């Protein structure tokens, strides 16, 4: 794993008789969305520790007490559903540090529940945060990157952007959309010397508020009694899966740092424990075998 000190360049001014003076180290600056907790906060601390300037953005920076103690961290408001706040956060970061070199689109959440139980406005919210919010932040920072003739965009996706599971159909749909957008965008922006990368945590991430928020957003409908047997079996399967979670937010942050520092145009970075074999199945099995394998975890009827 590569660890960078985040130095963008060393500028050396010319001097008579071959001497050099005026050496100035210019630190790279990264803007991170969703930095109030979990992966975003872990990344903000790690990048600052490794010599980067960090624009740590969140919906309510007044509640953040830890990141503000870092001299190279600017905490500022950014709500991905509020386009004015996006522009203001980017302007604040540039004004404070001089420029922004990289962006991590991390803000997101998972809408849980049966699709039939999820009202349309919650579907819209899922895509507003996980897809349209990413697009709006990206669109807002691109003129700055083009002016700099360089830039890096890292989008935090999920294993749910590679394989799907019941009860998170909207979350999967949003991450599949993010994967497609990111890959297509990478081809476009390569013409502008701007690199796009995707981080794909899978197997579950611990020490993050993601699961708690998703539980709060879980959609239910008591009238949908026909799903009761399926829900019981599916919840039992998820309980077993959750017990295998081993990936921490700090581990994901390390991969984010590697992706930002390795100097490559590599597109995807998987991180996590594939003990359930979903990633391997998706990548190596035929379509028929893969679907059969996945259905075996969530059979439509109880086995007698």
Main sheet properties: 7 strands, parallel
| SS elements, strand count | 9
Q: Roughly how much helix do the residues carry, as a percent range?
A: 40-55%
Outline: globular
Q: What structural category arises from helix and sheet content?
A: alpha/beta
Approximately what portion of the residues adopt beta-strand conformation?
15-25%
Overall radius of gyration: 21 Å
Strand order of the largest sheet: 5-4-3-6-7-8-9
Count of discrete alpha- or pi-helical segments spanning 4 or more residues: 9
The helix/strand series, from N terminus to C terminus, equals EEEHEEHEHEHEHHHEHH
Low-confidence stretches: 1-24
Distance between the termini: 49 Å
Q: What number is the mean pLDDT?
A: 87
Describe the protein:
With about 300 residues, the chain is an alpha/beta fold. It contains nine helices and nine strands. The protein has a seven-stranded parallel sheet with strand order 5-4-3-6-7-8-9, sandwiched between helices. The radius of gyration is 21 Å and the shape is globular. The termini are far apart.
Describe the structure concisely for a colleague:
With 304 residues, the chain is α/β, with parallel strands linked by helices. The protein is 43% helix and 18% strand.
Could you give the topology of this structure?
Blueprint: E1 7-14, E2 20-27, E3 29-32, H1 38-49, E4 53-58, E5 73-77, H2 83-97, E6 102-105, H3 120-148, E7 151-156, H4 169-189, E8 194-202, H5 210-216, H6 228-242, H7 249-261, E9 268-272, H8 278-284, H9 287-297
Parallel strand pairs: 3-4, 3-6, 4-5, 6-7, 7-8, 8-9
Antiparallel strand pairs: 1-2
Helix pairs in contact: 1-7, 2-3, 3-4, 8-9
């Amino acid at each position: 794993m590569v660890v960078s000190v985040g130095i963008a360049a060393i500028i050396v001014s010319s001097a008579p008789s071959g001497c050099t003076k005026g050496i100035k180290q210019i630190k790279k600056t990264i803007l991170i969305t969703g930095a109030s907790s979990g992966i975003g906060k872990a990344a903000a601390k790690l990048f600052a520790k490794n010599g980067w300037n960090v624009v740590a953005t969140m919906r309510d920076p007044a509640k953040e007490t830890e990141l503000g103690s870092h001299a190279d961290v600017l905490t500022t408001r950014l709500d991905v559903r509020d386009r004015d706040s996006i522009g203001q956060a980017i302007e604040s970061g540039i004004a404070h540090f001089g420029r922004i070199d990289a962006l991590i689109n991390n803000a997101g959440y998972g809408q849980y529940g049966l699709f039939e139980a999820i009202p349309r406005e919650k579907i819209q919210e899922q895509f507003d945060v996980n897809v349209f919010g990413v697009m709006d932040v990206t669109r807002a920072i691109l003129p700055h990157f083009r002016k700099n003739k360089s830039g890096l965009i890292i989008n935090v996706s999920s294993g749910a952007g590679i394989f799907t599971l019941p009860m998170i159909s909207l979350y999967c749909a949003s991450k599949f959309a993010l994967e497609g957008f990111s890959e297509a965008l990478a081809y476009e922006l390569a013409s502008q010397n701007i690199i796009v990368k995707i981080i794909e945590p899978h197997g579950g991430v611990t020490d993050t508020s993601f699961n708690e928020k998703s539980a709060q957003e879980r959609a239910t409908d008591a009238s949908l009694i026909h799903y009761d047997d399926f829900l019981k079996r599916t919840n039992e399967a998820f309980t077993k899966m959750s017990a295998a979670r081993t990936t921490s937010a700090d581990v994901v942050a390390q991969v984010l740092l590697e992706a930002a520092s390795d100097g490559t145009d590599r597109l995807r970075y998987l991180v996590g424990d594939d003990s359930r074999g979903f990633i391997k199945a998706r990548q190596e099995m035929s379509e028929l075998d893969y679907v059969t394998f996945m259905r075996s975890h969530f059979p439509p009827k109880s086995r007698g």
